[in-house]
Amino acid sequence: MADTSTDITTVACVGAGVIGGGWAAHFLARGYRVRAWDPAPDAEAKLRRIVDGAWPALTELGLADGASRDNLTVLPTLAEAVDGAGFVQESAPEDLDLKRTLLADIDAVTPSDVVIASSTSGFPMTDMATTAANPARLVVGHPFNPPYLIPLVEVVGGEKSERWAVEQASAFYRHVGKSVITMDRELPGFIANRLQEALWREALHMVAEGEATVEQIDTAITDGPGLRWPVHGPCLTFHLAGGEGGMAHMLDHFGPSLEAPWTRLTAPDLTKQLRDDMVAGCESEADGRSIAELVAERDRAVIAVQRAVAESRGRADG
Amino acid sequence: MADTSTDITTVACVGAGVIGGGWAAHFLARGYRVRAWDPAPDAEAKLRRIVDGAWPALTELGLADGASRDNLTVLPTLAEAVDGAGFVQESAPEDLDLKRTLLADIDAVTPSDVVIASSTSGFPMTDMATTAANPARLVVGHPFNPPYLIPLVEVVGGEKSERWAVEQASAFYRHVGKSVITMDRELPGFIANRLQEALWREALHMVAEGEATVEQIDTAITDGPGLRWPVHGPCLTFHLAGGEGGMAHMLDHFGPSLEAPWTRLTAPDLTKQLRDDMVAGCESEADGRSIAELVAERDRAVIAVQRAVAESRGRADG
């Protein structure tokens, strides 16, 4: 099937809380018409507050030609919201039964060649698509809060999703400026939320046990590893922790720490295969950049990140 | 005991790999004399490469009066390295037996009123101080790579460490520009590494099982949650995920996800106490800033972080 993602002019946002409202703001800023529906009685006021709150940031980033908050219409019914939409983004609360029913309802009123994407934080589409009549075009399109600023969207289909729907969703998200990871297998929590959730659960355990305070946990990240993660990600970060020996040296040196009780999560066996896969993955990602070049890149970026955060806080106080 | 941290003019760096070398660069940039020792035959050349590699970043950040790479001396013996030092930073490989022996050796040649801090990534000092004659002044001072850029240092004593040593180490690190978390109890991996290690182990599991590639994992963080973590930390980030209801709404809404298989790490029971502690911690950290104000702060900062990283990469390519 041809890529029709560039023909889309109207997006339906079903569910208009923090995530649905953030999506609406993003699509509006990219010049789309947005038709929204949410069953909550105060939904429209809340949605417009979210969009208004996002607009200064989106204006700062640069609006697309024709972008306007006037292109947002809140409709009284689901059927009216999806009418004329070339893409549907569902962002309902994280409740499996609710998602099943809602996706079946959206499916029933939406032409079968329109992709319906769910913002679910972690349910596999196979589990959500059980009651929809046309599951072929149902996919996960998982964003990060706020969807109008954080580029990542994870796209993955369920057992009954067809390849064209996964491809069209990925192409559409890329077209609207997103960084897309298209997964070829379902995994609860996808990729980023599995990583983030492991950290979050360790944090909750620590607070529950009185091992650290909320503030210590946040400072530990904002003033520590959090400064590196926008730059290189956890694997490439540790590639640099190995010094001139890179990931290979790092795993050979810190490998024994995997058996230490540094977190409640037990580690996998550091087999030769896993070691080699990590080393090869880092070398592929480094794409010819030496450790020294990556260190220089990281240093420039970490300084710039620190300054950016400090200046933003200064402006907040000022 | 009076705070003598401002009287220190010379620091001994024992172990001169990536971490020890990074510490040396930081102390040099802050105007200290650094005396280094490392048993590796090529240690001095490697150390000077690390310092030279760090110097452009440190110059960009602004050197202290009198700061110079000429203030680095590499000594042939441990005893000579600690001679005249007002603070000792040990950064040997992460091996418990090695650390025990080395800390006892450092202890034997260093005046007993000088604090000796270990850069260990996760060993409690109680486990490392078993063979030292004067464990009172042995503390953990755990930095993050690179120590010359990432502000966080976690300070914690062992059972035999005395309070003055913990306080003096904390004061000294603050004096040299660090963000210090002083912990009042020992915990393997301290705080930041427990959080980081949980994420890292989940990543290793995913690669081991073929669930994600190294590159997908890094992109999931750099283009996703990694953009928020220098700004607000994991707790305050999720305070904003709850919309106008904050952490309370977030836990009430996403609480059930804690039972979902989103990571291999099982979650703690979300007791009323834990829920209330998380809510109170976020409110304390927010320090009067409304959700709307925090959202505006985050939005400004995330845009600035993205631009900073993009520009740093642009300079790397150019």
Automatic annotation (TrEMBL), chains A, B:
Which family does the entry's similarity section mention?
Answer: Belongs to the 3-hydroxyacyl-CoA dehydrogenase family.
Question: Could you tell me which residue ranges the 3-hydroxyacyl-CoA dehydrogenase NAD binding domain spans?
Answer: 10-183
Organism (species): Prauserella sediminis
| Class of the enzyme per the UniProt entry, highest EC level | oxidoreductase
What's any GO biological process attached to this entry? fatty acid metabolic process
Q: What is its EC number?
A: 1.1.1.108
Please name the Pfam families in this protein's record: 3HCDH (PF00725), 3HCDH_N (PF02737)
3-hydroxyacyl-CoA dehydrogenase C-terminal domain residues are 189-258
What this protein is called in its record is Carnitine 3-dehydrogenase
Among the GO molecular function terms of this UniProt record, one is:
carnitine 3-dehydrogenase activity
SUPFAM superfamilies per the record? 6-phosphogluconate dehydrogenase C-terminal domain-like, NAD(P)-binding Rossmann-fold domains
Going by the UniProt record, its keywords in alphabetical order are: Oxidoreductase
> Is Calcium there in the keyword field?
no
Q: Which residues form a coiled coil?
A: none
Indicate whether tRNA processing appears among the record's keywords. no
UniProt pathway: Lipid metabolism; butanoate metabolism
